[in-house]
Design brief:
The chain is α/β, with parallel strands linked by helices. The chain has five helices and six strands; from the N terminus they run E-E-H-H-E-E-H-E-H-E-H.
Length: about 170
Amino acid sequence: MAIEIIQGNIVEQAVDAVVNAANETLLGGGGVDGAIHRAAGPELLAECRNIGGCPTGEARITKGYRLKARHVIHTVGPIWRGGGAREAELLTNCYRSVFALASAHRLRSLAFPAISTGVYGYPLEAATRIALGEARAQSNFERLVFVCFGSEAFDAYRRIWARIGKAP
């Protein structure tokens, strides 16, 4: 399995599924969520309306519509409240839910944003360790791409992967 860390725009990734850092309504928002909804087109919003939302730590799958990706896997990360509100457990569950859903749909390649590190305020280093640790434990995928929008996230992902990315 290949794990890639790139700096770029998640909506441009040609993978089986892009992962959306969504809110509980799944009806679009700012940041990654808004960009994915805009790029996928109004059909994505229409499909999301029929899902009925998604609790924090879980994931839901839709078609990708106008994206290069065939699917979007929406997951709701935790809002950072200082670390004592099960944030690490909930963020870990986001990744595990995404991987389980992707496996169930026989998807082989995924692109991830830095879930919960934007307006939800999760500390970048801690979130990156969870993301890469969960990715490292996978064996059902050909390619996992971590798409960093800015240089701060890109540097953190590369630095942490250099520490933990070696074979167990």
